[in-house]
Amino acid sequence: MSANSFGDIFKVTTFGESHGNSLGCIIDGCPTGILVTEEIIQSFLDKRKPGQTSNDKLNVNVTSRKEADKVEILSGIKNSKTEGTPIALVIKNTNQNSADYDNLKKTFRPGHADYVYNLKYNGYEDYRGGGRASGRETAARVAAGAVAMQILKQKGIQITAYTKKACGIEISKIDTSEIEQNSMRAPDNKAAKLMEAAIAKLREDGDSAGGIVECVIQNCPPALGEPVFDKLDALLSHAMLSIGAIKGIEFGDGFAAADSFGSTNNDQMSCKDGKISFNTNHCGGILGGLSTGNKIIFRVAVKPVPSIFKEQETVSFDGENYSSAKLKIQGRHDVCLCPRIVPVVEAMAAITITDFLLKAGL
User: Fold this and answer.
1) What confidence score (pLDDT) does residue 54 get?
2) CB of 290 within 8 A of CB of 229?
3) CA distance 362 to 339
């Protein structure tokens, strides 16, 4: 299996499977002297980890699998400062229940990567929990993103993601102070309560839901990016679509621009005291693949969790022949991934922006 790395200078390689001993990442190209501690990284991982208790605010839609996701720094950081050498981070798996996947040795789960993984890796893939295709792989991304965030913090760049829509229910306001006040990580507590109620009903019914996560990057310097193939929006798209549950992305007005006109979609400009500004931000802060200096705004579509507790039609493979089958999935699974995708989106955005900054020598 190749292509487990992302980035050119700030390069992140992840390793590990959902039900293996551990997972983690190697970060190459990190500058020296950046303040990084296990506690800092852990604060980011805690937003993504599974197994929240009934007394915890993040209990409505997440899996009951309890993992501390405790990070351990193996190399590259001394006295809480980066050394400029490869940073190795590891997270142990402690609460696997592989028996839940015994019925999946030869049966492909609808909506999962089981079938295509089996084709590509000839049955040698780890089917337990999806192996490398599991959402648990994103824990390593969040750990790496936490390091990138510390670099961006020094440059005043802020990245904030939140649930914009889930279960067909959309927020009606954006108050970032409310994001960590509800289980959906939505900037609207009132809308979040409606989402929570809908998700609770879906859990009872054995079903799941998708949604939309929006991300805002502030204070990014203008002209960041590379024209043609390595456009800033192209690489951000690469980063986001590499997250397993994400099936679409749009910047600024996105697909709504298809129903717009040049006279309304163009971001007209003005100049005051020698400083250029944009009157609007329909482009989402990126033109010609380069940042404009305005807020970078994009949204990603998160598909419904494929592991549902309803019987589904599928196919089994005995090593030689395929046959139709029915499957009812067992185990512990999320109902809606949006709140746990939020820190992953932030992490991948941070890794992408950091890599571009280092390539530009900033």
Assistant:
1) 38
2) no
3) 32
Question: Long-range contacts of range 96-100, CB-CB < 8 Å, 24 or more positions apart?
Answer: 96/18, 96/19, 96/128, 96/129, 97/65, 97/331, 97/332, 98/19, 98/128, 98/129, 100/330, 100/331, 100/332
Residue entry with tokens 């229910």: 169
- Between β-strands 246-251 and 71-75, what pairing exists: parallel, antiparallel or unpaired? unpaired
CB 47 within 8 A of CB 53: no
Mean pLDDT of 108-134: 83
The pLDDT of residue 157 is above 70: yes
E strands, the chain, in order: 5-6, 11-16, 22-28, 71-75, 77-78, 81-82, 87-92, 158-166, 169-170, 211-218, 246-251, 269-272, 275-278, 286-287, 290-291, 296-302, 312-317, 322-327
Pairing of strands 290-291, 211-218: unpaired
Residues 246, 305 contacting (CB under 8 angstroms): no
Max avg pLDDT among 7-21, 39-53, 248-262: 248-262
Token pair 């295709």 in the structure block, residue: 133
**SS3 for 101?**
helix
Strands 87-92 and 71-75: antiparallel
Structure tokens at 357: 């900054």
d(CA 118, CA 207): 26
Q: How many CA atoms lie within 13 A of 192 on its CB side?
A: 25
- CA proximity to 339, closest of 50, 32, 14: 50
Q: Are the C-beta atoms of residues 26 and 151 closer than 8 Å to each other? A: no
Are the C-beta atoms of residues 302 and 337 closer than 8 Å to each other? yes
Total Cβ atoms within 10 A of residue 227: 10
pLDDT at 314: 94
> Tell me, what's the pLDDT at 129?
66
Are 286 and 251 spatial neighbours (Cβ–Cβ below 8 Å)?
Answer: yes
**Is this model's pTM higher than 0.90 or not?**
yes
Q: Return d(Cα 17, Cα 2) in angstroms, integer.
A: 15
